[in-house]
UniProtKB/TrEMBL annotation:
InterPro entries cross-referenced by the UniProt entry: HAD-like_hydrolase_sf, HAD-like_sf, HAD_sf
Descriptive protein name: HAD family hydrolase
Coiled-coil residues: none
Single GO molecular function: phosphoglycolate phosphatase activity
GO terms (BP aspect): DNA repair
Superkingdom of origin organism: Bacteria
Pfam families assigned: Hydrolase (PF00702)
Length: 274
């Protein structure tokens, strides 16, 4: 049955593939925990760092009430006295609802889809916000291009992407990461020359309808690949494009997307079959 499904997937060769970067073209097992360290280490909550990291692992595995694929209210915890106070919020898998519009207001809700978004949410729960938040976050992000914590380049992935371009498939990299950090990471991964178009500061998913119109390709002939359903795939799905979720985590809305891959190796196998 598995081989039959794979064959069916490969029959639909897209004219355009829109890739996400972070968590998709590499999979992070380290930095999301370091984000917690950077935000909590010099606060009254520094002793919570390791227990929070363990709790995060449980959430990513799907064994807690809070799960990836949920929208959580943007609300600072009021005088948290124990770790559980940071997690005392109610999540909603809004994309599974018939009318999710209420939860798509980014001023009121955060979409939790991986270790990064969960860590950033918890940082805001203890009061980090504004420029102070982004300055501290960039310290963790800079570790992606370092030798200690950063992902290693994958030459097999690079070769696959270049071969897809040779076949005439238009490859787009579309990331919400800031341009400076995103370009440095792309260079670190040896993927700078693999795409026909590279977009940073993309404001996904809100910008995607306009971008899809500019590409001038029938959405049915596009494939969106990413690790975050709402940010990377939702706009494509609404427009009629195919979608592929690539994530090792339990994600409550994972059934919405056309194809599910758990690892980078599975993604490479899929791309290779094209």
């Amino acid at each position: 049955m598995k081989s039959r499904i794979l064959q069916d997937e490969q029959k639909k060769i897209p004219k355009l593939i829109c890739f996400d970067l972070d968590g998709t073209l590499y999979q992070d097992k380290v930095i999301y925990k370091n984000i917690i360290t950077h935000f909590f280490q010099d606060t009254p909550y520094y002793e919570w760092i390791e227990p929070i990291q363990e709790k995060m692992d449980n959430i990513l595995e799907g064994t807690e009430t809070l799960k990836c694929g949920q929208f959580l209210p943007k609300k600072q915890a009021e005088f948290p006295e124990k770790i559980e106070d940071l997690f005392a919020v109610s999540g909603t898998a809004a994309l599974l609802l018939e009318s999710p519009e209420k939860w798509l207001d980014r001023k009121k809700y955060s979409y939790i889809s991986d270790g990064w978004t969960l860590a950033m949410y918890l940082a805001r729960r203890i009061g980090w916000e504004g420029e102070r938040f982004w300055e501290r976050f960039q310290k963790a992000r800079a570790e992606l291009v370092g030798e200690t914590f950063g992902p290693e380049p994958d030459d097999e992935l690079r070769d696959l992407l270049l071969k897809l371009r040779e076949k005439g498939i238009y490859l787009v990299l579309c990331s919400n990461a800031k341009k400076s950090g995103g370009e440095a990471l792309l260079k670190h991964l040896h993927l700078s020359e693999c795409f026909d178009e590279v977009v940073f500061d993309a404001d996904k998913p809100h910008s995607m309808r306009t971008r899809m119109e500019e590409w001038g390709i029938d959405p049915a002939e596009m494939l969106f690949i990413g690790d975050q359903g709402y940010f990377d795939l939702y706009a494509g799905k609404l427009a009629g494009a195919r979608t592929m979720l690539v994530s090792p985590y339990y994600i409550e809305d994972q059934g919405l997307w056309d194809i599910r891959k758990n690892t980078l190796e599975e993604l490479k196998e899929f791309l290779g079959k094209m």
